[in-house]
Amino acid sequence: MDVSELRQALKESNSPVTWVSLVGQFFGSHDLFYGHGTDNASDEAHWLVEAASRCESEKLNAGFSSKLDYVFNIAVKRVNERKPLAYLLNEAWFAGLPFYVDERVLIPRSPLAEIIERQFAPWARLEPGHRVLEIGTGSACVAVAIAHHCPGVLIDATDISTQALTVAAINTKGWEEQIRLIQSDLFSAIEGQYQVIVSNPPYVAHDRLEELPAEYQHEPSLAFEGGSDGLSVVNRLLHLAAEHLTTNGLFFLEVGEAQSAFSSSHIRLPATWLDFERGGEGVAVLTREELTGYLADQNSF
Q1: How many CB atoms sit inside 10 A of residue 206's CB?
Q2: Are strands 131-135 and 194-199 parallel, antiparallel or unpaired?
Q3: Please, which of 139, 154, 213, 239 could form a disulfide with 105 given CB 3.0 to 4.6 Å?
Q4: Rounded distance, CA 201 to CA 218, Å?
Q5: Closest CA to 16 of 39, 58, 45, 40
Q6: Can you give the three-state secondary structure of 168-234, one letter per residue?
């Protein structure tokens, strides 16, 4: 289906269900990549049409024709620019919550959502007043999700990027009593200890960046670049995290597709890899004792 066929077909129907089918066909006729909130053309089309249906009056004039233009124009941009729909809508969902996103931050898609929704059980039991640290907060979706699902928990959310922190400030509005945003290169501006540290750092090997689908090129490269093996930032985290954990503290580390390289590089590290009901991989949980023991073994060689 080409652009003119899509517009004509949309004009001939006023049914949202039909629009979803038509836009899904249009997306399916082009070489798009899904993975920034959906994993197929039909779900992507449903997201777009649903977003049009709830646009506020100041964003969209009331009436059928304006919604048609909205759906059509964004669908065409999605195909022509290969830009993820989340950026075109300035909207993403994580752990059941909506977030503002633009090209200053990664689009939320971490399996950490399942852990947060369970309040980190059975690994940790967070109580009001306990401290959580997120390294590399980006849009602050993880920090806000923790605040929402773990009432009373205090979260420090850091990022090296001031642009990312500007977006994070939008999403943390109203959560200031629980969430503090901090510009920091990993732990450089961090003091004290935390019951839980969470991080989804850059972990894509440099040579792999050019192989990623075009949609990924719209996301900030700083959030992907993991050096020659994908582990340059990850390794720094491993060497620094323990001193910022309480005695019974836990470190949740997401390394995604770099899990194999991580395991090969840290054979003696007793990482526990988590399974997820909704899909996802490459998330390890480590205790403070496991981290300090591993570092002691490394230093003994």
Answers
A1: 14
A2: parallel
A3: 139
A4: 18
A5: 45
A6: HHHHCCCCCCCEEEEECCCCCCCCCCEEEEEECCCCECHHHHCCCCHHHHHCCHHHCECCCCCCHHH
Task: Give the SS3 label for residue 164.
Answer: helix
Rounded to an integer, what distance in angstroms lies between the CA atom of residue 19 and that of residue 4?
15
Pair 247, 288: CB distance under 8 Å: yes
Mean of the pLDDT values across residues 162-185?
98
Q: What angle do CA 72, 75, 77 make, to 5 degrees?
A: 110
Rounded CA gap, 248 and 265, in Å? 26
**Single-letter code of the amino acid located at 141:** C
3-state secondary structure 61-84: CCCHHHHHHHHHHHHHHHHHHCCC
pTM of the model: 0.92
Three-class SS state of 147:
helix
* Bigger pLDDT: 222 vs 297: 222
Residue 106: what are its φ and ψ, rounded to 5°? -65, 150
Q: How far apart are CA 144 and CA 99, in angstroms?
A: 9
157 within 8 A of 136, measured Cβ to Cβ: no
62: exposed, middle or buried (C-beta count within 10 Å: 0-12, 13-18, 19+)? exposed
Is residue 122 reached through a cis peptide bond, with omega within 30 degrees of 0 on the bond before it?
yes
pLDDT at 54 over 90: no
Contacts of 103 (CB under 8 A, 6+ apart): 87, 218, 219, 220
Q: In sequence order, which residues have a C-beta less than 8 Å from that of residue 31 and are 6 or more positions away?
A: none
Phi, psi dihedrals of residue 147, rounded to the nearest 5°: -60, -40
DSSP single-letter state for residue 107: P
| pLDDT above 90: residue 13 | no
The structure tokens listed for 186 are 């990993």
